[in-house]
Structure formats: C-alpha cells, structure tokens
Amino acid sequence: MLKNGVLDPQGKAIGHALESLGFEGVGEVRQGKVIELELASSDRNAAEAEIDQMCQRLLANTVIENYTIEIEE
Amino acid sequence: MRSAVIVFPGSNCDRDVAVALERASGVAPSMVWHRETSLPPVDFIVLPGGFSYGDYLRGGAIAARSPVMRDVEAKAKSGVPVLGICNGFQVLTEIGLLPGILMRNAGLKFICRDVHVAVADTGSVFTGSYEKDQVLRIPVAHNEGNYFADEATLDCLEASGRIAFRYTTPDGLVSEAGNPNGSARNIAGIYNEDRTVMGLMPHPERVVDPAHGGTDGAGMFAGLVKALAR
C-alpha cells in the first residue's frame, strides 16, 4: 500500500468512479497490490522473516510503500 | 570514449542511444545483454529507455535485480559515469544509486510529447556543455515520470545542487504549468552525491539530429565525449 501522505492519483480516480456510480460517503480511496507466494517452508517464523526480506529487497519500494505480511497454512 | 549500453528485455531506446553515442564519439558502444555478469572495460554506461520486463511489479524493479546490474552498480560505485534515461532512471532509483522514485504521472495518462527543461546545474560530465538555466526542448514518453522523494531528500538535493534538470514552460519558468507529470519541485533529472550518476526522464537521444526536429540533446553526448575522451 502507498504510505500515508503519498499522493495516490489512481485511488482518487477510483473514488471519483465510485461516486459517479452513486456510492455515497466514500472518503479517501487508497489502492495497492496483493502478492501471493507459495513457500516450501513449514516454519512460520522463518517464513515470515524470509518474506520480510523479500519485501525489503524487491516486492515493495519502501520509499513510498508500506507492506503487511499474512501467512495462511 | 568506450561506452556500454545495457539491454533488457523490453528496452526500446537502446539503439537510439547507441546511434547518438557513436555519432558523438566515433566509436560504437558495446551492447550488453541483461544476463551478462560483467561489463567490458568502459568509460561510460547507459541504462536506456523502454519497458524493461514489461514494467512488471514497478517500472525498473525487475531490471534493477538482473545479473548485469551487479557489475553496473560496482562500476558506478568505483566512479564510472552512469546515465539512466527514462526507464533507466527508474532502474537507478530502484537499485538505490539515486534517491526517490518515479511514480505514476499525476494526470494518470501516458505522456508522449516535447517538454521544456532548464539546465539547473552544469557541474557534471553530463551537463558541462550546457549553460546554466539554458532551456532545452526534449521529448518525454512515460507513464511513471512523477518524481517523488520525502521533503528532507528534496531539500538535500536542492541544497547540494544535485537537481540537474527541471521542467519549465517554453520561456524557462519553473512552474506548475511547465510540469507535465506532477514531479516534486519540477524535477526532471538528478545526480548522485558524486555527480557521476544521473537519471532523467526526457530523452536527449531523440534530439541529436536535425531530422529529429531538434538537436538540444546532442550537447549532452558531445559533452560526455569531451569530458571522458582518453
């Protein structure tokens, strides 16, 4: 997700489109990406640490993006 | 001047910049494929424009992690000048050789037209042949050219004279009217701390011949050859 304070023109355009469809009461709209990974690891903590590295080094650009990690087994 | 042009799958300005370099230096550059792990000995490296890896994930993100970039980064850190044009600028920010990032254009549209930029600094091998505040007409062609960095980084770039080019109106006014893509402080091009790495969104290689409709980009290549000739 884009960090707070980073202008998100795509989110704004989505907000305007929702408004023109008649949805009222929509405030700020922020958009982002979901990336699904399948990992061989069965160690939850190790997997989380590894994904964190992946986010830092490639999946997110931390100049403008935040990320959160969710693990499903 | 021995130069190398890095070619990624999806690069599309590699030949244009090779022609510009050969015309200026008399020597054809080495075209180096992204899977190579080392570059030949060179005085100058270009990361060309295009859509490397289809702009997957983020513009320049995958290219920045491709095998050849390890040696490009090492050479950049040893002082070999590196120029990133358009997608090449995106690659340089993704690999961390330049601060900030190029975001989606504020108007959400791909922009393909001539813009005006002022030369904000002439103290580098890239800009030494221009006059300070000289206004150039150079084309842009990008969807993600909206330069963003936090305020502290922008202040630092400004204070240390590391903004190389700014978007302007045709008469050289740095204003919102002259800013095509929403870039912070009208930034069109910046240097690293040592002023040996430059990224810019406009395409100087597209204006090096009168048949292009302009020659304002030729000075950059002529200046590089003058500065780096051995």
Topology of this structure?
The complex is a heterodimer of chains A (73) and B (230).
Chain A: H1 9-20, H2 44-59
Chain B: E1 3-7, H1 14-25, E2 30-33, E3 44-47, H2 61-64, H3 68-77, E4 82-85, H4 87-95, E5 101-103, E6 111-119, E7 135-142, E8 146-148, H5 151-159, E9 163-168, E10 187-191, E11 197-200, H6 218-228
Parallel strand pairs in B: 1-2, 1-3, 3-4, 4-11
Antiparallel strand pairs in B: 5-8, 6-7, 6-9, 9-10, 10-11
Major β-sheet profile of chain B: 9 strands, mixed
- Beta content of chain A: under 5%
Total discrete domains of chain A: 2
Q: How does the overall form of chain A come out from the CA principal axes? A: elongated
The number of helical runs of chain B is 6
Instruction: Give the proportion of residues in helices of chain A.
Output: 25-40%
* Average of per-residue pLDDT values of chain B: 97
H/E series of chain B, N to C? EHEEHHEHEEEEHEEEH
Content of β-strand of chain B: 15-25%
Q: In oligomeric terms, what are we looking at?
A: heterodimer
Could you characterize what this model shows?
- The complex is a heterodimer of chains A (73) and B (230).
- Chain A has 73 residues and is mainly α.
- Chain A folds into 2 domains: 1-32, no CATH class; 34-73, no CATH class.
- Chain A is built from 2 helices and no strands.
- The model of chain A has no long low-confidence stretch (mean pLDDT 93).
- Chain B has helices spanning 14-25, 61-64, 68-77, 87-95, 151-159, 218-228; strands at residues 3-7, 30-33, 44-47, 82-85, 101-103, 111-119, 135-142, 146-148, 163-168, 187-191, 197-200.
- Chain B has 230 residues and is α/β, with parallel strands linked by helices.
- Chain B starts with a strand and ends with a helix.
- The model of chain B has no long low-confidence stretch (mean pLDDT 97).
- The radius of gyration of chain B is 16 Å and the shape is globular.
- In chain B, β1, α1 (14-25) and β2 (30-33) form a beta-alpha-beta unit.
- Chain A binds chain B through residues 6-7, 9-10, 13, 57-59, 61, 63-64, and chain B through 57-58, 61, 65, 93-94, 99-101, 103-108, 148-150, 182.
